[in-house]
Amino acid sequence: MDDETFRAWAHRAADWSVDYLAGVGERPVRAQVAPGEIFRQLPAAPPAEGEPMDRIFSDLDRVVMPGMTHWQHPRFFAYFPANASPPSLVAEFVTAALAAQCMLWQTSPAATELETRVMDWLRQMIGLPDGFSGVIQDSASGATLAALLTARERALGFSGNQKGLAGGPVLRVYASAQVHSSVDKAVRIAGYGDANLVRIPVSGPLHGMDADALDAAIRADREAGLVPAAIVACLGGTSIGACDPIEAVAAVARRHGVFLHVDAAWAGSAMICPEFRDLMRGAEAADSLVFNPHKWLFTHFDCSAQFVRDPKALTDTLGIRPPFLRTLGQDGFVDYNEWSIPLGRRFRALKLWFVIRSYGVEALQGMIRDHVAWARELAGIIAADPDFELTTAPILSLFTFRYAPAGAGTGAGTDALDALNARLLERINDDGRTYLTQTRHDGRFVIRFQVGQTATTREDVMIAWAAVREIAAGLRAG
Ligand code: PLP
User: Fold this and answer.
1) pLDDT for 329 beyond 80
2) In angstroms, what is the span from residue 18 Cα to ligand 1's centroid?
3) Is the C-beta atom of 304 inside 6 A of ligand 1?
4) Looking at ligand 1, which atom is closest to the CA of residue 294?
5) What confidence score (pLDDT) does residue 333 get?
6) Pocket flag, ligand 1, residue 141 (CB < 6 Å)
């Protein structure tokens, strides 16, 4: 492709992007295709000769777009958000143009040094004290794995990497059942074994871990000759937003010398608002904390921010320095690949820099405050509706509810109401005006509602609710 053709297509892609985002609210939120429908339209063999860009671009609209679920839709209230923004998109475009592989300081000093600076901005923004060093990971899963590997090595005196785990002590990890499945996965990959993930019961309105039960579990393990290695505390669990009492959990961690990792993948972004920081009280005593600006801080996926108290423990765990990666004749810099599982690194700091500078902290706080306020308002409306039940109160901008129409009563039985709600959810998502997902809480099928998209307004929240009520009424009538 010559420069002028590239310029024309780059402009066309920019126009396409602006038009797409301006009109995304008119599309059904969740893709409305059947499994295999897109695949069948794609030729089985690659083209032997290049095709005109016009044809490729028109196939984007014809073949690909019907199979897209629109995460930037203002009425996307499913899962957790992945709320991108125009400044982040522009930065991603530039990042793609640079196409730099930023594995070492030397392979792009600006990428490393911008990352160090922007991560320190983020640290200040969420109110973490001095003394934490930040790194951008590809995902919260990757950060949690890095943390549990570090905890493993710390518990083994940094000998596990050299000797392997065979014949060593049994290492234990503690978490509530509210943590994300990435913790289960990290426990597996890091070699602890599923059986050594000890589940601590939760209680209270925040569904947080019982710190006394945690303390008792660690003592019992010690007495049995097992080695407590790590605690994973949850700040904003995926299912219902559960928050562990981090201060009390951190006190237990300190008492027993156990590594504490805090998974704040979703809720961490809200910590830029001082009024929500009660939820993270005690996090300053953690060894590691992760949150995803790619969820709720208007920054494109992927961008996961991990803060560690002792970066040397992390680099002693993950750093490997073969001769072909040495930077000759220079000293005193950070090579972030030694902080992460993959070697290769995208220039992820750029989009964060664009976002923070372009909005400023106050505007970012304002958007998050709106999301929380609208979620709370809608939860209040649902709690007052005789046909619905608010099954978990909002924690920040996430709550759950279910349809329990007056006539159905509790006598309809859990299974019948579960089935009714599953049917309702299917119809809501087939309808396309909004997109919601489910979880199980207290043994019941419940519908999750989180507010966090960049383009969402209060009106979108209310339109979604009106759609839910209308579809529920139709379900009952039909
Ligand atoms: N932790 C929590 C609380 C999450 O909600 C999620 C994903 O939704 C993850 C971890 C995993 O995030 P990632 O996709 O960045 O690995």
Assistant:
1) no
2) 28
3) yes
4) 15
5) 83
6) yes
Give residue 359 CA to ligand 1 midpoint distance, Å: 25
Report residue 146's pLDDT band, with 50, 70 and 90 as the boundaries.
very high
Distance 183 CA to ligand 1 centre (A): 9
CA of 427 to the centre of ligand 1 (A): 27
Residue 262 has pLDDT above 90, yes or no: yes
Cβ of 265 below 6 Å from ligand 1 = yes
Give the mutation target among 138, 244, 266, 303 for probing the ligand 1 site: most ligand atoms within 8 A of CB.
266
> Ligand 1 centre and the CA of 305: distance in Å?
12
Q: Which domains does the chain have, with CATH numbers?
A: 3-81 (1.20.1340.10), 101-346 (3.40.640.10)
Q: Return mean pLDDT, the chain.
A: 96
Nearest to 449 by CA among 290, 240, 260, 304: 240
- Tens-place pLDDT, residues 189-238: 999 999 999 999 999 999 999 999 999 999 999 999 999 999 999 999 99
Q: 264-321, pLDDT tens digit by residue?
A: 999 999 999 999 999 999 999 999 999 999 999 999 999 999 999 999 999 999 999 8
Whether 266 is in the pocket of ligand 1, judged by its Cβ within 6 Å, is yes
Residue nearest (by alpha carbon) to ligand 1 atom 12: 140
